[in-house]
Amino acid sequence: MHQEYTIIEGDFVNAGKASSSVKKTLKQLNVDPTVVKRVVVALYEAEVNAIAHAYGGKVLVDIDEDKINMVVADKGPGIPDIAMAMQEGYSTARPEVRDMGFGAGMGLPNMQKNVDKLNVTSEVGVGTTVEMEVNFN
Amino acid sequence: MTLREIVNLLDATVHTGENRLDEEITQAFASDLMSEVLTLTDTPLLITGLCNMQTIRTCDMATLDYALIVRNKKPTDEMLELAEDNDMVILSCRYSMFRTCGILYQAGLKPLY
Lengths: 137, 113
Fold this sequence. Notes:
heterodimer; A: 137 residues; alpha+beta; Heat Shock Protein 90; 5-stranded antiparallel beta sheet; B: 113 residues; alpha/beta; Udp-n-acetylmuramoylalanyl-d-glutamate--2,6- Diaminopimelate Ligase, Chain: A, domain 1; 6-stranded mixed beta sheet; globular
């Protein structure tokens, strides 16, 4: 099953819509609630990151029988040092992102904790792609 | 303690979930930082000063059913609509985060950590 969502820059009100929709789908498919939570927490953090830092992007979700694959690809400033961005507490978020309850440098670490596979690729001035995979069993 | 007791202790407003006020709460977690809330594996009462759509979405993702918004902030209709869709209980009170936590701790509500 393939699903696609569009991310609009600065659209904080709708941050989490894709995650919410994926949550509903996985529940309908009777995926273990613990796994569902891991999937949606990771996807939600990725969505918030793309809305907060980039100029728009896409969320692509592929659900198989035994796993979910999620790609959050944005057009944006990119991440100059991915290793540093992966460190808990490191943040470049603007004040309005912090006003939304995010921007404390926990996004990428939270994603890593919740998924089985995480791959972050980024080009400065072009954008960032976050690929995540979670096994259902 | 029940949610109804919490409402009475704090003179809180019940925005959604009136039908769930007799449910028992044993633990609470207080934070304005939603990434922190997303790390929780348990499902306590969330006490927060953050009052926007992300408060509700975070609760949805973190499978938290109960949120108490402090510092006299009022949830918007849009927030309450989403909370109702997710069958959540949303309360608010006029007290500060510190005072709210103090009252509930003294009354026997346990910290998550």
